[in-house]
Amino acid sequence: MPLNAIFKALADPTRRMILEMLRQGELTAGEIADRFAMTKPSISHHLSQLKQAGLVQDERRGQHICYSLNKSVLQDLLGWILPFELREGERSP
User: Starting from the edge strand earliest in sequence, which strands make up the sheet with 64-69, in order?
Assistant: First the structure.
């Protein structure tokens, strides 16, 4: 799991919004683009960054590309982050 690529992808608010949308189920690139006031090439760039980080997967269906969450990568990321959670009684530095 390329953590630096994942954190870079998650650092952008537009990409986080795309991930939130995909929590509800898969969407085509056009459906995603329709929900933003930006150009389709800009949305394509964001989707490419999410795909490179392994956070989303795509599948071509005819003339459409459908995007969905890659839950296994998200589960791996949570498995790495959760042990850092403060336990009861611990203080943050």
Answer: 27-28, 64-69, 56-61
Read off the pLDDT of residues 39-62 as tens digits, 9 standing for 90 and up.
Answer: 999 999 999 999 999 999 999 999
Residue 47: count other Cβ atoms within 10 Å of its Cβ: 19
- Alpha-carbon distance 26 to 21, whole Å? 8
- Which of the four CATH numbers 1.10.540.10, 1.10.3720.10, 1.10.10.10, 3.40.50.150 does domain 3-77 have? 1.10.10.10
Q: Hey, where are the domains in the chain? A: 3-77
Q: Is the pTM of this model over 0.85?
A: no
